[in-house]
Structures are given as C-alpha cells and as structure tokens.
Amino acid sequence: MAAQRGRGGAFHLLLLLVSLMCVFHGTQGLRVGFYTNTCPNAETIVTQTVQNRFRRDKTITPALLRLFFHDCFVVGCDASLLINSTPKNSAEKDAGANLTVRGYDLIDAAKAAVEKACPGKVSCADIIALATRDVIALSGGPKFAMPTGRRDGRVSKASNVNLPGPSLSVADATRAFTAQGMTQNDMVTLLGAHTVGITHCSFFDDRLWNFQGTGRADPSMDANLVKQLKSVCPQRGVGLGRPVNLDQGTPNIVDKVFYSQLLAKKGILQLDQRLATDRATSQRTRTLAGPTSPFTKDFVAAIIKLGNVKVLEGTKGEIRKICSRIN
Q1: 152 is in an annotated binding site
Q2: 31-65 b/e (C-beta count within 10 Å ≥ 16 → b)
Q3: 250 is an annotated ligand-binding site residue
Q4: Do the annotations mark residue 25 as ligand-binding?
Q5: What torsion, rounded to 10 degrees, do the Cα atoms 326, 63, 125, 121 define?
C-alpha cells in the first residue's frame, strides 16, 4: 500500500510539472486551460464521453492513440483525418493506411456534446488530443494536462498520407519522425503506444514462415513465441486478418512492460523488435524497460510534443461545426 501511495504522489507531481511546463513552455503557443473562459466545461464533457465509452469498450484506448498519431503525422494535428471524402476529393481517412482507423464516432459524440454547451468554440483537433489524454489515464497510464488551442484544418487528401510502416528500419523510421520535428528518443518512446492494442497476422507472418526469403522464422523472435503465433497465423495466407496483441505481457495497460517484451525477443512487429537490437536505439530501449524507467514522464512529454506538430492557431483554419466536414 505504501508503494501505491508513493506512485500516486508521483503521478500528482507529474501532473503539476507537466501543467507548468505546458503553460510556460508550449512550443507552438498552445496552453493548458485554453477554454477556461470560452467553454469552461469542455474538458469535462470530453472526459465524460470517453469514460462512458471506455466502460464498455476497453479497445478504444489503442484506437484513439492510433487516430491521434495518424492525424498528427500527416499534415499536423488539425483533425484533417476526420474529414469525409467527396466525389471530387479522396480524403485522408480513405488512404490505405487509415482504412482500419476507428474512434471517429467517439470524437463525433464528444463534439456534439461540446457544441451543445458551447457552439463554435472547441475544435475537433483539441477533442482528439483531450480524448487521447483521457484514455491513457483510464488504461493505467498517468493523468496529465493536455495543452489546447488547436484549430481545424480545411484540407484533407489521401495523397498526403505517408505513414511509417511496421517493417521499416530504425534509420528510416527515425528519418520519418525527424521530418515531423521529433527525435529518435521520441520515436522509441511513442512506439511504446504499442503497450496496448493489436495487429494482424498479415503485418508480420513473414517473420514466422519465410523471413527475408530464408524459409525460416526471424531469429530475432523468441522461439516459443514463434511456435505460439504459428498456431494463430497459419502458413499460405490463411487467417491473415486474425488479431494478435502487440504487447505479450500486459496488453491492456499503458506501462513499460512493452520494452521488457522487446528485450525478451517478443516484439511482434519488426520495427518494434529492432528497437532492442539496433545499436542506435538498444540502450534507450533498455532504459525504458529498467527498474528506474522514465517511461511515464517521457511518454507524456512525447505525446504532448506530437500534439504540437504543425498545429493551426489564431485565425488559421476553422472551428468545424461537424468534425467530418469542412464548414
């Protein structure tokens, strides 16, 4: 019990420190409490919407983390991922990499509730960020303050979508993150979002059956895990849509165990496993898996930093009335 109280105190301290950091050092001018005067109940409304969904669907956590990442990583955190395609435009959500993104209905529900309380005040981009904050806390991660003040973009094109894939080298993935203003350490930390959620056999079955054309399994994967996964993901293209937990240890909790799994050669996606073996990232992976892991505070900092990518502020963009279409 004493240890639990200690961790709780640490989380409250983290909340205070992050709040102060965001108020005084927001890299894009976003700030905690942006809606205090214009829509004082906005954050509470979003939190209640997320809590209601989480009670009946714990898988909403990885869904929202993925939605947040896929939105911010394309043209910035402007909710352009939420816009529907039209006969004249194929929007981001219809790009191949986004076809399995979900959670749009939760964002729509939160937006509708906020609009009822404060019409035209709160952006869809901020609702995504706040909802992501909330599901992290609900899934065992820390509570923290999320800066707000983003505005919604008016452009969404499937052709803009170029997200880093699960088989990239560490060097290529690092370049993709660097292009968004993120560091290699940010990348390793943000991939820790794979502490929750699933992937499908089609994204890694080559590691089980024919790694790099060898006709054998990937030697960097634990042999017992290979045997287990072969029963889930049969050879010759059968069952490629079957789900597999990305974290084989604590798949529903936001924690550092994901990194321990990588050190045990139990990473499912090739890029994830490479974090533990590539000379550029192996030490960072060991640090995040260690007994004094900074994962909690570093994950919060990386999520906030991602939420600052190429945001629209002031009079740029708009505040959408409905998240799925431009005003």
Answers
A1: no
A2: ebebbeeebeebbebbbebbeebbeeeeebbbbbb
A3: yes
A4: no
A5: 90
Angle, CA of 234, 237 and 241, to the nearest 5°: 80
β-pair type (243-245, 198-200): antiparallel
The token duo for 231 is 């029963």
The per-residue pLDDT for range 101-138, each reduced to its tens digit, is 999 999 999 999 999 999 999 999 999 999 999 999 99
Which is more confidently placed, 238 or 177?
177
Which pLDDT belongs to residue 28?
47
CATH of the domain at 65: 1.10.520.10
Is 232 annotated in a binding site? The answer is no
Q: Return d(Cα 317, Cα 189) in angstroms, integer.
A: 30
Domain span at residue 29 reads 11-163
End-to-end CA distance of the chain: 52
Is 318 domain-assigned? Answer: no
Q: Is residue 71 part of a domain?
A: yes
Helix, strand, or coil here: 182?
Answer: coil
Query: What residues are labeled active site?
Result: 70
- For residue 272, the domain's CATH number is 1.10.420.10
Q: What are 49's two structure tokens?
A: 């919407």
Structure tokens at 221: 């994967």
The position carrying tokens 């994901």 is: 258
Task: Say whether 87 counts as a known binding-site residue.
Answer: no
Asked if residue 248 belongs to a domain, the reply is yes
Question: Quick one: which of 287, 289, 283 has its CA closest to 261?
Answer: 289
Answer whether 152's CB lies under 8 Å from 78's CB. yes
